[in-house]
Amino acid sequence: MSIRNILIHPDPRLKKQADAVPDLSDELRQLADDMLETMYDAPGIGLAAPQIGINKRLIVMDCVREEEDTPNPMVMFNPEIIGASDDLNTYSEGCLSIPEQYGDVTRPKEVAVRWLDVNGNLQEAEFDGLWATCVQHEIDHLEGKLFIDYLKPLRRQMITRKMQKLKRELARG
Predict the structure, then answer these.
(1) What's the CATH number for 12-172?
(2) DSSP-derived secondary structure for 138-164
């Protein structure tokens, strides 16, 4: 397993729609393992393949927050939301591609999701609370959408300018 570099917004690769995974391979399973390691190292609770420059419909997540709790890593190939509650939740969201920036985003409180697991088996599950927010946030990445796209234009521009400055500083080393 290896830790991958996470793209920082603005990057055109973060705004592209990801390609479906036609067939699972050992290479894709290895990518999923790398993504989990990258996510835990960051640290974060979710990561989508486009965030590491891979234009595939693959997300990983683990919303277990407490050290003493058992991790619950999830790998989803070609995830899709197949149902959503009318009830809404607002969370202060962040993103590994937009470090140190947060914004309130309102999304359905509960969602039903269908995906392929690492063995190629079709899975379906319902998520609520933080898990529901996380899976929706990561699936948005597969559509080329970032959480700041839900914010007011002025706030979005402020965050984008901060990220441009951060990228310049990182480039200088």
Answers:
(1) 3.90.45.10
(2) HHHHHTT--GGGGS-HHHHHHHHHHHH
Is 27 among the residues known to form the active site? no
pTM exceeds cut of 0.90: yes
Catalytic residue among 27, 138, 143, 169: 138
Q: What is the pLDDT of residues 108-145, one digit of tens each?
A: 999 999 999 999 999 999 999 999 999 999 999 999 99
Sheet holding 46-48, edge to edge: 46-48, 58-61, 74-84, 110-116, 122-128
Chain-centroid distance, C-alpha 48: 4
Indicate the range of 2-11, 33-42, 59-68, 148-157 predicted with least confidence.
59-68
Is the pLDDT score of 65 beyond 90?
no
CA 87 – CA 41 distance, rounded (Å): 33
Domain boundary assignment for the chain: 12-172
Q: Residue 86 carries which side chain, given as an amino acid letter?
A: D
